[in-house]
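Aim 2 progress update. The chain analyzed this quarter is reproduced below.
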Amino acid sequence: PFQLNPSDTLGLGLNFWVIFFIYIGSKTRLYEGDITPKRHRNAIVCPFNWCFWPKSSNGLVIIPYVISSSYTREEKALIVGAIQEYETLTCIHFVDRTTETDYIYISPKDGCWSYFGKVGGSQVVSVRKGGCMRKGIIQHELNHALGMLHEQNRNDRDKYVLISWQYISPGDFYHFKPTRANNLGLKYDYSSVMHYHRFAFSNTSGKATITPFPDSTVPIGQRFGLSNLDVAKINKLYECEIHSTLLSNLTESFSSTIYRSSYPKNTNSVWLIRIPANKILLQFNSLYIQSSSDCASNHILVYDGGSRRDTVFLNKLCRPKQLPSVVSSGNMMLVELVSDGTTLPKFKASYSSGKSTFRFTTPRKPFTSGE
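Predicted C-alpha cells:
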C-alpha cells in the first residue's frame, strides 16, 4: 500500500495527494498512471501519421472539442484557459465542435486520464472535478491526446534520472518502462508538464522513485503549465511554422535579436510571459521598427493576458515618442511582433514581477504609436 506521509512531500502540496488518490481509485484501466490503453503505442512513432490530428491547408491543426455541461462556469473557464495556451504558442487550435465525427470530449470521469493521439469518434479526456482541475494537469492530458508520452519514460531517461525500483511495487513496474519513441532531437526536460513527480508510485514512506541527476535537487513534476520544451516538441511533432517563446522566470529580458537576418515573411512571433503569481511590469528598453506611417505593416501588440482574445495594452506600436511601460492585471502577458518580412525589427524589453501595484498604473486605453 502507499505509505507516503504529507511531511515527506513538502512543495508538492494538496494537489499531489488529491491527484494520487484519484489515480488509484479510478476504475478505468490505466497505463503509466493516466493513459487508457486503447492503443499501446506512442504517436511520436506513428507510421503514415495515422494517429496524428490532421493538418489543414492553412497550416493549423484543428481539433474540435466539447466541454461537458457538468462543469461549473469557473471550471469551464479554467479548461478554456488551458486550451487557449496551445493556440498562442503552437499551431494546435481547439475549436467548438459542430458536426465533426472525430472530436475530444472533456468530461469529469473517474480520474485524470486520456488516450494516446487521435483515436477517432468521441474521444474522452477525463478531467475530474477537484484534483484534476489545474491548468498543467489539463494540458498534461491534452498532450497525451496529441500523442505525447511521459518525459521520464523516454528511451534515454537513464542519463538524466535514477529510477529506484526497490521503492516501486512489482505491479507498478510497467509505469516506468522506457518507450521506443522519437525524442525529436530535443533535450530532456525536467520542467516538462509531462514529467512524473519524484514520489510517483512509491510504496515506502519518504522514498523517492525518481531522482534527477547529477543534481538531485532539480524540481520535477510541475503542473503549472506547458514548458518551453513542451511547446517545442508539439511544434516539431506537428511541423508548426510558429515562432513562440515562453518566459517563466520572475525577471527576464528578451529581444528581436533572435533573428540574425531578415525577419520571416508574414510570420508573427510571440513571447508569452507567464509567472506563478503576481502582476507583471513590462518595460521596453529600446524599440524601432520600420513601418508605414500608421504602423500597419510592422508593429508590436501587447495583450493583458495569455491570449490574443485578451485586452490590448499596446496597439500597433512601432516608433513611439517614448518607450512605454505597462502593468498586467494578472500573472500573464502576451507580446506579439507582426511583420511583413521587409525589414529586421529591433526591440529590447524586460519584465519583472511584484506582489502589489507598481509605481504607475495600466493605461485606461490601448497605447498606440505616436502617443
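Residues 1-25, 39-43, 356-365, 367-371 have pLDDT under 50 and may be disordered. The chain has two domains: 6-151, 242-368. These observations will guide the mutagenesis experiments scheduled for the next reporting period.
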